[in-house]
Amino acid sequence: MNEYALGQGLWEMGFAAAVPFTLVALSAMAVLLADLWLLPSQKRALPWAALAGVLLSAASVAFLWNEEATGFGGAIRLDRFSAFFAMVFLLGTGLVVLLSSAYARREGVERGEYYALLLFGTSGAMLMASAVELVTFFLGLEILSVSLYVLSGFFRQRPASAEAAAKYFILGAFASAFLLYGIALFYGASGSTTYAALRESFGSAAFPYSHGLLALAASGLLLIGLAFKLGAVPFHMWVPDTYEGAPTTITAYMSVVSKAAAAAAFIRVFGASLSSLQQDTSAVLWVLAVVTMTLGNVVAIAQTNIKRMLAYSSIAHAGYLLVALTAAGEAGYSSVLFYVLAYVFMTLGAFGVVSLVRKGEGGADAGAEALDISHYSGLAGRHGLLAAAMAVFMVSLSGIPPTAGFFAKFYVFSAAVRAGEVGLAIIGVLNSLVSVYFYMRIVFLMYMKEETVPVRGSRSRAGWVALAACVLGTLLLGVLPSSFARLATESIASIF
Amino acid sequence: MELPVLSLVTFIPLVGAIVVLLMSSENEKAVKATSTVFSGISFVFSVVLMVAYNRAIPDFQFVERASWIPQINVWYYVGVDGISITMVFLTALLSFMSVIGSFGIKDRVKQYFALFLLLQTAMTGVFVALDFFLFYVFWEAMLVPMYFLIGIWGGPRREYAAIKFFLYTLLGSVAILLAILAMYFSTTPHTFDIVELGKTHPFAPGLQMILFLALFLGFAIKVPVFPFHTWLPDAHVEAPTAISVILAGVLLKMGTYGIFRISYPILPDAARDFAPFLAVLAVINIVYGALVAMGQKDLKKLVAYSSVSHMGYVLLGLAAMTPTAMNGAMLQMFAHGIITGSLFLLVGVIYDRAHHRDIDGFGGLAVQLPIYTGIMSLACFASLGLPGLAGFIAEFMTFVGAFPVFKTIVMISAVGIVITAGYFLWTLQRMFLGKPQEKYAGFPDLSARELVTLVPLQVLTVFIGVYPWLIIDFMNSSMESLSHFLRGV
């Protein structure tokens, strides 16, 4: 047979659905191999190789943008939804790679594994978003999680980093067990692990009562697993320590990619397949959303370490996502997608600034990361652009127009009101009022206080490019949200 | 194609801000010149707007409409009517004067002017927006530059003042946001269209009351209505001179403007029910504000509390709902803008020279600074309501219009006028009369730049005082139709 027929055959088997994440995984292996041959002086090429892999995969997603395909016997699916999330993950990964290029070298972790694991993690996240079968979804989750366990402990010499990895690993393994148990129960109740079978079994109100109980128990267990990944209260205990101890760029990656992947899987499982259980899940999600937002925002106020503050802020933002997930429906889920995209720009941007700022000459530990919030005092005087970028991200995270964060929150809260969850929307809005205090405190320190500890910003060109992209994205999504909102709506429409 | 005048008035300062940001921070002169030019062009367009506006009809004019976020029916929708056109002009005028008045800024000049121009765009946007979403975006966007302007260039307690201003206003904004969302979802088809909602006012009386209260919280903080006024003295006192001018001249008006533009047309039943409470709050503002002003030692704080008192007249006019009272309220908004704007500029002038604002610390300045004394006296007399000056006409119309509706309240309010006259005259006496003091001997009188910012405002004050129709003509038809609509005649 000729090559054309082979291609045709692969296409019919649904290989197209696997192309984007396969490309990322292959690039990860290529990075690993390249690391073996490269001389230490040539290691600078590693991030660029990783970036090339990201771009390659993004090109394939763009190429397949209008395609729909189901592959591997109904295990994965390529549709607008998975394409949207693939783009979000790749965008996040690309920006993290750019930020890492200087950070990793300075912190002495510029090794092939670092970039390879980032890419592996991304391929896992992409698999999570495109999986339409529970075991495949679990596979994706584990690929992502294992990469992150290693990456968060990448500073092998530092106890904090080891602690971060150990906590994350132990609690993560625990959460995985819940998840697996849930999957097993689903299998018991419906006799299959595909989402389509879930929908069929529980789609009509006619399924037997005992199965209903099983399904509820299974949903609960699955919810716990996902809530852990999302960093929702009360499954958030690992977040502050892990975010603080992990390398800053990895923290950025975790807060963006891993959260987005959990949201994607959530929508596929609970939104598109188990919508018949929505009343029950909504009640649970409502509570989760309220405690998550409130705890995140209130505890963030008391933080003195900027990474810890951003960790609690990320918990709070998981709460906003939960508001949208509680609202459910196409409007609620579209707002999740928009939120995730906005969140990539503003959060990566904020962590990006943190990764670029370090203590200046004069102190005993010159060159170390400047992680105390007080280190940001007077940053505007010395590094006007860095401070301005950070101000944009803080304003956006607090949800003030005309930034991405405002429209994202507006979208979420209006979805909640539309779904009749007015109380939840009010709690959400009040929460974002509280959050203004600790976000604006950073701005206040940067612009209105004198420098206490000399800090200096990195001149890494790649890092600056990433920050510029984040600022542009934050403003663009705030001023012209329309086309991105349409993208989100279309992506959701493709799975309902 | 017609020139999109409103968009030009609104966004030319934004273009200016971007240009300023791209300039070198070394060249402060060029930054100042550029800012003046952009703010000036915006002002010129606002004059064009006033000239071309058809005063006979109450409808929206210079309307521009383009789809912005079609998914949720959000439009870029701007236009002006009798309620907003004078405010747009006032904003452009005071901003232009304040840019010139800010030439004395020495620290981080580039950022200051960029933020100032950004602020101007946001403020103008609030007055021209006819779509709730757009309105809210401008309303909130104003906060950030204001926060920086107070927090970086303000006085010794600037940090406290800036965050207090920010959080207070944001609390109010959040209430407004919830009201907007509630309105959006209780209409079919869902709409953010302020004009449309004002025509159909489709809400049941119970819901109207809830919406009215939520909106009122947001607007009352801005005005500020007692007991939400505590941010104001802090912000005004700590802000740099030009920003105090903008705060008093423009920002406070947004609260009452919001009631005129949104609460009244869209929620008429609730407005009628709420009017007596509004009148009571108004008289508290008038009398309490005046009494507190009288007790101040700091000149700037005195002017700040006088604002609380003067905004009370606007509330009183609003509450009365008669055409005369509402015209008076609207005129008071304009008059207070130019009069208090001048007062804050004048406080800045003396502070630049003496480096203190303690009223009792001055004395006999009339001999040393004759021109300053003249202009300060004019502004104070205008503020206390001397006939022939702008403030008098506005207060008089408000009282005349409100008297048939709230007799007792108007009579109590009149006490406020006496107290106001008292503290302004006492202030003039303490500052300018008496024996000249040695330490103020070498002070130069007003410079040419200071005169450029002050004289136009004084000319307007006198001109409106003599010929108030100049401004009332713009608002009259809109006020009459709004009043008729509210009172059902």
Q: What does this molecule look like?
A:
- The complex is a heterodimer of chains A (496) and B (489).
- Chain A is mainly alpha-helical.
- Chain A contains 20 helices and four strands.
- Chain A has one domain.
- Chain A is globular.
- Chain B has a domain of 223 residues.
- Helix content of chain B is 75%, strand content 3%.
- In chain B, strands 1-2 form a two-stranded antiparallel ribbon.
- In chain B, helix 13 packs parallel to helix 17 and helix 16 packs antiparallel against helix 18.
- The longest helix of chain B has 32 residues.
- The two termini of chain B are 40 Å apart.
- At the A-B interface, helix 17, helix 18 and helix 20 of A face helix 5, helix 6 and helix 7 of B.
Write the SSE topology:
The complex is a heterodimer of chains A (496) and B (489).
Chain A: H1 3-12, H2 19-37, H3 45-63, E1 69-71, E2 76-78, H4 80-106, H5 112-130, H6 134-152, H7 159-190, H8 195-203, H9 209-230, H10 238-245, H11 248-273, H12 278-301, H13 306-327, H14 329-356, E3 357-359, H15 379-382, H16 384-398, H17 404-418, H18 422-448, E4 455-457, H19 461-479, H20 482-493
Antiparallel strand pairs in A: 1-2, 3-4
Helix pairs in contact in A: 2-3, 2-5, 3-4, 3-5, 4-5, 4-11, 4-14, 4-19, 4-20, 5-6, 5-11, 6-7, 6-11, 7-9, 7-10, 8-11, 9-11, 10-11, 10-13, 11-13, 11-14, 12-13, 12-18, 13-14, 13-17, 13-18, 14-16, 14-17, 14-19, 14-20, 16-18, 16-19, 17-18, 17-19
Chain B: H1 5-22, H2 28-52, E1 61-69, E2 74-80, H3 85-101, H4 109-128, H5 132-141, H6 143-153, H7 158-185, H8 194-200, H9 205-222, H10 231-238, H11 241-266, H12 268-294, H13 299-320, H14 323-354, H15 365-368, H16 370-384, H17 390-402, H18 407-432, H19 448-466, H20 469-487
Antiparallel strand pairs in B: 1-2
